[in-house]
User: What shape does this take?
Amino acid sequence: MDELAKSYHVKPSPLLGLLRGIAWLIPGDWLKTFFYLNCIAAPRRMLRRALFAFYRYDHVYAVLGGFRSVPGGFSVLEFGTSAGYSFVKLLYATRYLGLANRVTVHGFDSFEGLPPTSDPRDADLTGNDQWMVGQYRGDYDRLQTYCQARYRNFCLHRGHFENTLTDEFLQTLRAQQPILVWIDADYYTSARTVLERLIPWLPSGCVVYFDELDTTNFGSRLTGEARLVHEINHGQLGEGLELVVDPELSLNSSRVYRFVRLGTGPQYSAMPDDNAASLVRVPTNGSPLP
Assistant: This one.
């Protein structure tokens, strides 16, 4: 048995060598297991979560910051504003980055909480977060008063999405192209209504954030926002459309996507330096160093 163990190939690792040394010093399998679970596995898991856990507002500043030098006016659209917790954070981000005079933040909600639904595509199949009628009810008047006292670059749209995403509003997206679409509507059916109406107006590269994508049914495409992403990427809302996970913005989640369209459609203005001849790199040295 010892000879068999010696012949088994294991890639050399300083960490494995250290663990073997520690195991040799600790008597008994119970103590060895206790030490590993509490002194190795638990701290490693905690450190990994601390370093790579997704936070909802990191990508907001990255997206807005990328448009500071792009000419024109833009918009941020939030669907599922509720009491306005995230809405105010989106507004403040435009102020902090000096974009309050160029970016309008729109919030869409009925402010009556979740409506009833019998569509199985809205369901949470795991039973961990069952939706309830009236859940996430907001106070439109209170939020309007709060924002009016502090901001000017916002608009709250009260009503169901199919009623507030009017042709008149959509026309305004010609002058204020969306750069971030924030979907926190919980239901698949609500999110689908939003994107069915918005897709013709979204430029390639627009960021779409799905708040429940990987928290409902573990990100299963059977229901919820993950189902909608799957349907878009399989041509059910039109040909030549795709939502691509942006790993730099999404980190270890699958919540932040880039919308990409093939063919004609809205596009952001290119910066003059994007195609400059100076972008060509001339030889410096032959090593892997820059």
Remarks:
- The longest strand covers residues 176-183.
